[in-house]
Amino acid sequence: MNIKHTLLALLVASSPAVFAQRLTDTKATKETKKLYSNLSKVGKKGYLIGHQDALAYGVKWKYIDGRSDIKEVAGDFPGVYGWELGGIEKGSALNLDSVPFDKMRLFIKEGYKRGGVITISWHGDNPLTGKTAWDPAAGTVASILPGQPKHEVFVKQLDAVADFLASLKGDNGEAIPILYRPFHELTGNWFWWGTKGSNPEEFKTLFRFTVDYLRNKRKLHNLIIVYNTSNGLQSAGDFLERYPGDKYADMISFDAYQRGKAGQDNSFATKLDNDLNILDELAKKHKKIPAVSELGYSEIPDPSWFTRTIQPVFKKHQFAYVLFWRNAGYKPKENETEYYIPYPGHPAASDFIKYYQAPETLFQKEAADLNLYKD
Ligand code: BMA
To answer: Is 96 in the pocket of ligand 1 (CB under 6 A)?
Structure first.
């Protein structure tokens, strides 16, 4: 631990919570409570940097122990690791992006052991139509609520998720705390749980059922629940239209992607700022921890995107973490390339290193020094 890290740890441990601070699960495990309390203070100093599937693959490699594109470009692992359960609901050994669940379990343990934070999403198949998560068939959510024809199909799917979550254990048998973000991008119209597949009341009922089921029926007490909209919202009212209530969410967040050619205008930064203003207001009012649950500009066509577009906006706000989406590389099925963190030699690599060096961006070493799971 160097001096910068020691000071950081002291500062965060002794500071009052910036946001919130009681978990909605009164039976949460010791480590889960501790993580939540520490995440509520992180915003004072900066924000953790996360990366989806960081340890599984990068733009030009797959499944090589010890690798991570963030590490290769900046010299450190991310502070938050994102993982995805799509496919588990049909008993598949690989997730929808071909990550084997057995390996994922080990990667999760590895990130946790290093002191990093784990977050999980689930692009589960549509329980009504049997098609993918991207089939927003009308009536889907209504059909899976308790007492409805597809309820048991959904519960079976959820049981597969619960089994996986229950299998995540640290060295001493303790449950690994998970930031679980069910039904993410819930204000969008592209997933079956979104605005085409449900009305707000149906959605809220589904969200509450899911959290209650995982907690009370499956006895999972290692979950920090993340309410996760898409971006470009106009008001706090928009953000809350499908909010299940303060008893069902611990964190509030949105996903945001820049698209199109570089250097056209600054509308992405303006939207990001506006969405963060909404989160700032709601985090205070509802006593929840804010975060940016997915972010990116695929292939990073603007070589100074990190320090010129997002860093100045993020400096104006306090939140716990931002998760960059996956470095899939070339995807043959879609014949497209997708990645959000530069690799060595990429035109945005030196800008990412500058961003890494900024005091407010917290990666693995800082996360470890913060002792997020302990007093
Ligand atoms: C999307 C893309 C897809 C992927 C999905 C779930 O945004 O990255 O390639 O299958 O997320 O991880």
So the answer is: yes
